[in-house]
Write a structure and sequence with these properties.
The chain crosses the membrane at residues 39-61. With 594 residues, the protein is of the alpha+beta class. It is built from 24 helices and 14 strands. The strands form 4 sheets. The chain has a 6-stranded mixed sheet with strand order 2-3-4-10-7-5, with helices on both faces. It has a 3-stranded mixed sheet with strand order 1-9-8. The chain has a 3-stranded antiparallel sheet with strand order 6-14-11. α9 (192-210) runs antiparallel to α10, α13 (264-285) packs across α14 and α16 crosses α23 (517-534). The relative contact order is 0.13.
């Protein structure tokens, strides 16, 4: 019988937990038999476990301090918990996730301790940073010394498997080499797929708005990006727009809200989201998460739903690939054939259904969630800044006209459009936090020119916050918390970003930079153009949110975005808006009928 992932991890932890107690118990038993000790065996064994971990923590700290001194470095300042094992820090992190604003507590600790610090949770040393120089070292200049690692894999393996976002070393290189040719410029500048699904999405918006209800833009844009991603990547659209019914807002008649049919595409999207929430919960539990899933993996049910959609598609792709190879019409290699989907392309490299499953699922998470989340926040910001909406819409009308289908050249001409997207990605990057594990003892640069480098021991994790880094006033200026797309166009661009490009990392950096970055920009740009060709104003509709999805009233007294936002930003693997993003829009006059 094969052990589940959780059972295998728990068994390993039990061995490490029991070993000190067993050793002390055996020693006491021997000493009692020799009449050299009188203490009960059970008492010694019981005391041995906490004593071992406390002693180990002290020994590791001393060892790290000595190694740091030998390397001319020092340990970063420490966020010290009040309870044994830093359990109170773990509680704060969990509370911040469930009830707080994005990066609560971590942001305050950066203000208190500096741009890099460590913390001790469950007898494990971890590091946090918002220092661009350190992030550059990890992602680029010392890339080979930093990996996703086994601990990260334990959190996400049941969902991401061995896909590109979870893989290291040669496996990562294999995935990367398979996927890279598919995102060549000629493939990501064909906007036909975007156009078809954007038209359907906007048609659904018009219908719902004409009923007198607000639209959950987060739900709608998630359907658009899911349909676009599944068709572009697999050649098999889930038709979440065509087959689904948009949700009704809080306060709508019960028969509309409760009677809304659920399509297979809805089930797929909800399962996809549920699996990501499980991953987020595992990360907050650190190495304790397997104990929470002893009676079954919490990703099993949602992944069954996801797999029921993916597996037939993979089987068909492998069948087609096999038949083509038998006829001698597939040469393999990196060249992408005309009309080939990503799945078709990958099937030329491998016939392993697990590798194909993991890779396309990884790419789909990036292809759907990044664009959907960013466009959700763009619409929110435009609802709060009508003067910016008017300026953006005018640029769109000047370049593409009121009804024309935008081209790649049109998108390149729209400088303010790109600035709006970048400013949104700055304040709300799709992946707000990420982490890497050190392969060997290393030192990281200290942003204080008078300070020593920071020592990080082998096996330690460094979590880096793009979300916090993007709001640093020393990186972006005193107005860093404000939404101002012009910072990507005026003198501030050359003052801050141009000399230090690693302060802006919405798509990662270094060898693992997002392959689909330009695809995402094209998709987001295309949809925004179509949206603002159709609608001339956007208003945030607070009354349409479920009350529990809105930010607590007491947040208004806080500085920065926490005190400003009218929605609740949250994250699992990627950022999203709690309870959706309910807005109303006014249609622009039809050309010739104004």
């Amino acid at each position: 019988m094969r052990l589940s992932q959780a059972h295998a991890l728990v068994l390993g932890q039990l061995v490490r937990l029991v070993a000190p107690a067993a050793a002390v118990g055996a020693l006491l038993l021997t000493l009692r038999r020799l009449e050299l000790a009188a203490a009960p065996v059970w008492a010694g064994a019981l005391i041995a476990v906490p004593a071992f971990h406390v002693g180990r923590a002290w020994w590791l700290y001393r060892r790290h301090a000595r190694t740091a001194a030998r390397l001319g470095a020092t340990l970063p300042p420490c966020w010290e918990g009040r309870l044994p094992g830093g359990v109170d820090i773990l509680q704060l992190m969990d509370y911040a996730y469930r009830k707080g604003f994005l990066s609560d507590y971590f942001y305050e600790k950066f203000e208190e301790l500096g741009a890099t610090y460590n913390f001790y949770v469950l007898w494990t040393w971890d590091y946090c940073t918002q220092d661009a120089a350190i992030i550059k070292t990890i992602l680029a200049t010392d890339f080979n010394n930093w990996v996703k690692g086994e601990h990260f894999d334990s959190f996400v393996h049941s969902v991401l498997g061995t896909g590109v976002f979870n893989a290291d070393g040669e496996l990562w290189k294999f995935h990367r080499s398979m996927t890279r040719p598919f995102f060549a410029r000629e493939r990501i500048t064909d906007f036909e797929t975007f156009d078809r699904h954007a038209e359907e999405a906007i048609h659904k918006m018009k219908d719902r708005l004409r009923e007198g209800f607000a639209v959950d833009f987060a739900d709608l844009i998630g359907r658009f990006t899911l349909d676009s991603a599944t068709e572009f990547l697999f050649g098999a659209c889930v038709h979440s727009l065509h087959g689904g019914v948009l949700p009704y807002p809080h306060g709508a008649p019960a028969h509309l809200r409760d009677g809304r049919p659920r399509s297979p595409a809805d089930a797929f999207a909800e399962a996809f989201r549920a699996a990501q929430h499980v991953i987020s919960h595992r990360m907050r539990l650190v190495w304790l998460w397997p104990w929470n899933e002893l009676f079954g993996s919490r990703t099993a049910d949602p992944m069954r739903t996801v797999d029921s959609y993916l597996e037939p598609i993979i089987e068909r792709a492998l069948q087609v690939s096999g038949e083509a190879k038998e006829r001698g019409v597939v040469s393999g290699g990196e060249e992408v054939g005309e009309g080939e989907t990503l799945l078709d392309h990958l099937a030329k490299f491998t016939s392993d259904p697990t590798i194909l499953h993991d890779e396309i699922l990884n790419i789909m998470i990036a292809g759907r969630d990044t664009a959907a989340g960013t466009l959700t926040f763009v619409v929110y910001f435009l609802s709060q800044h009508p003067e910016m909406l008017h300026r953006l819409r005018q640029e769109i009308l000047d370049v593409a006209g009121p009804t024309g289908r935008p081209t790649y050249d049109d998108v390149k001409k729209m400088k303010y459009l790109r600035a709006v997207l970048n400013e949104t990605l700055r304040l709300y990057p799709a992946v707000p936090w990420n982490m890497r594990y050190a392969v060997k003892d290393t030192v990281l640069p200290n942003s204080d020119p008078m300070g020593k480098s920071w020592f990080v021991p082998a096996g330690a994790s460094v979590s880096y916050s793009v979300h916090c880094m993007h709001r640093r006033k020393d990186y972006w200026g005193p107005d860093a918390e404000e939404f101002d797309p012009d910072r990507f166009l005026d003198e501030r661009l050359h003052k801050y970003l141009t000399p230090n490009p690693f302060i802006f990392l919405p798509f990662n950096a270094g060898p693992r930079i997002c392959l689909g970055q330009q695809f995402a920009y094209n998709e987001m740009s295309f949809f925004l153009i179509k949206l603002l060709q159709t609608f001339e104003s956007i208003s945030f509709d607070r009354e349409s949110f479920e009350p529990e999805a809105l930010p607590p009233a007491e947040w208004a007294k806080f500085p920065g975005r926490k005190g400003k936002e009218k929605f609740w930003p949250r994250a699992h693997l990627t950022l999203y808006s709690e309870g959706g993003m309910w807005v109303k829009m006014r249609e622009a006059p039809v050309v010739g009928q104004a």
